[in-house]
Specification:
Oligomer: single chain
Shape: globular
Structural class: alpha+beta
Order of helices and strands: HHHEHEEHEHEHEHHHEH
CATH topology of the domain at 9-71 and 139-200: D-Maltodextrin-Binding Protein, domain 2
Strand content: 15-25%
Length: 216
């Protein structure tokens, strides 16, 4: 297995799951080697450097994907548009397009950086704005694969059926890295869903349709 790794808090439960699931030293080494922000992992996946990854929704349309994804219903806190000059977040692919669809002006900020930024500045939550407009959850990314479909579908299904408890030592690492408290991290994780069901697929279809219009 060669899986791309995005070091964001919203994938922390999956990281804990994979640490136990990856059996061989080679698999673990590959997972640790292929790390990066979403836009970087998208490129690695598209070039075939990784077999599977959590791929931005805007990129996922061209690939086979499981029902495991990054989903937010009503709000997410980690995908924002903040006051100031209109700027994309270089770490993102999907969120920059989402901001354009919602006609939001300002700086797009995603991931753990956004969780800190929202404490210092009044920013708009893009998942909340999407929900207000369409009444649907937003799918930011999907777990997609280029090969070994049965193996990766089985992995995704196993994760969705699991109940993950984050070990104290891992939580301590993420607290130090993000500057957030354990309570803030846990509260944030309650906003993240991982199952891409009927409503999520409906939302994804709508997003991709609107994104296509922007690129015309």
């Amino acid at each position: 297995m060669i899986i791309g790794k995005i070091e964001y808090i919203n994938l922390l439960p999956f990281h804990v799951f994979l640490k136990k699931r990856l059996r061989t030293p080679a698999d673990k080494k590959a997972w640790m080697y292929h790390q990066g922000v979403p836009s970087a992992i998208n490129k690695k996946f598209q070039k075939g450097k990784v077999e599977a990854a959590m791929v931005s929704s805007i990129v996922s349309k061209k690939y086979r994907c499981s029902d495991f994804g990054i989903v937010a219903d009503k709000k997410v806190l980690s995908v924002l548009v903040c006051p100031g000059k209109t700027l994309p977040d270089q770490a993102s692919d999907t969120s920059n397009i989402l901001a354009k669809i919602l006609k939001m002006q300002g700086e797009v900020v995603i991931g753990d950086r956004a969780l800190q930024r929202r404490k210092k500045q009044k920013c708009q939550d893009l998942a909340a704005l999407w929900y207000e407009k369409f009444g649907l959850p937003f799918v930011f990314a999907r777990f997609c694969y280029r090969k070994k479909g049965k193996q990766y579908e089985k992995l995704a299904k196993a994760f969705l059926q699991s109940r993950i408890k984050i070990p104290t030592y891992i939580m301590r690492t993420y607290k130090k890295r993000s500057g957030l408290s354990s309570r803030e991290i846990n509260e944030y994780l309650t906003l993240i869903r991982y199952n891409v069901g009927i409503r999520e697929k409906q939302s994804l279809k709508k997003f991709l349709k609107l994104a296509k219009k922007i690129h015309k």
